[in-house]
Specification:
The structure holds 2 protein chains of 2 kinds. Chain A is mostly beta strands. Helices cover about 0% and strands about 55% of the residues of chain A. In chain A, strand 9 and strand 10 form a beta hairpin. The chains are: A mainly beta, B mainly beta. At the A-B interface, strand 4 and strand 5 of A face strand 5 and strand 10 of B.
C-alpha cells in the first residue's frame, strides 16, 4: 500500500462545475498538507498549504483536512478551463521528506 | 525574483554517458530539493540540502547518482554512467527556513537512449 493514494483520473467537468479532488494517506505522522497544480511540461506550483484539520479557503479553492480519517480534499468552485491541469496532493511530517500523490488530471471543458 | 532556475531544460544522451543537471534556488532560501518524476512512480524526492549540507539522500536510487551544493546559489545532480531507466523529468525545488512551502523549477527532461 502506498503512503499516499490519489485517483489519477482523468476527471472531466464542464466549466462552472464544482470539482472535488481527494487523497488518502496511511502515515499518521503527516502534519503538513499541500496541494500543487502542475500544468503540462511545467513544474508543480503550490496552491494550498495547511497544517491543521479543518478547512482553508483561498478564492475559489478550499482545502479540507480530516486527520482522524486520514483524508484530504481540494474543492474548486466555478471551475474554469484555465484550471485544467494535474493536481498533486503532498504531505510531510516534521522533517522535509515530502510524499506526493500520483496526481489527478483535470480537464474543464468550456 | 526569477524563481528556481534549472538547466538544461532538455537533455538527450546515450547510455553510459555522464549527465549533469544544474539548479539555482530562489535567493534567500535555505532548503534545496531534487525530485524525479516519471509516469510510473510519480514525483519522488531524491535528496535535499539545508544550508548547503545534504540532510537526507535516502531517495537517491543508486551510487550512480550524486548531488552537490557548493554554495547557497548552486546545486548539481550528476548521473554517471547514465542508463535508459534514468529517463525522467528532474525537478529542483527550494524553500525558506521552515522547509515547508517548496517552489519548483521548470524541470529538466532527461532522455537516455
Amino acid at each position: 500500500q502506498k503512503e499516499v493514494e490519489q485517483d489519477p483520473g482523468p476527471l472531466s467537468v464542464p466549466e462552472g462545475a464544482i470539482v472535488s479532488l481527494n487523497c488518502t494517506y496511511s502515515n499518521s505522522a503527516f502534519q503538513y498538507f499541500m496541494w500543487y497544480r502542475q500544468y503540462s511540461r511545467k513544474g508543480p506550483e503550490l496552491l494550498m498549504y495547511t497544517y491543521s484539520s479543518g478547512n482553508k479557503e483561498d478564492g475559489r479553492f478550499t482545502a479540507q483536512v480530516d486527520k482522524s480519517s486520514k483524508y484530504i480534499s481540494l474543492f474548486i468552485r466555478d471551475s474554469q478551463p484555465s484550471d485544467s491541469a494535474t493536481y498533486l496532493c503532498a504531505m510531510k511530517d516534521w522533517d522535509n521528506d515530502m510524499r506526493f500523490g500520483a496526481g489527478t488530471r483535470l480537464t474543464v471543458k468550456p | 525574483d526569477a524563481g528556481v532556475i534549472q538547466s538544461p531544460r532538455h537533455e538527450v544522451t546515450e547510455m553510459g554517458q555522464e549527465v549533469t543537471l544544474r539548479c539555482k534556488p530562489i535567493s534567500g532560501h535555505d532548503y534545496l530539493f531534487w525530485y524525479r518524476q516519471t509516469m510510473m512512480r510519480g514525483l519522488e524526492l531524491l535528496i535535499y540540502f539545508n544550508n548547503n549540507v545534504p540532510i537526507d539522500d535516502s531517495g537517491m536510487p543508486e551510487d550512480r547518482f550524486s548531488a552537490k551544493m557548493p554554495n547557497a546559489s548552486f546545486s548539481t545532480l550528476k548521473i554517471q554512467p547514465s542508463e535508459p531507466r534514468d529517463s525522467a523529468v528532474y525537478f529542483c525545488a527550494s524553500s525558506s527556513t521552515t522547509g515547508d512551502e517548496q517552489y519548483f523549477g521548470p524541470g529538466t527532461r532527461l532522455t537516455v537512449t
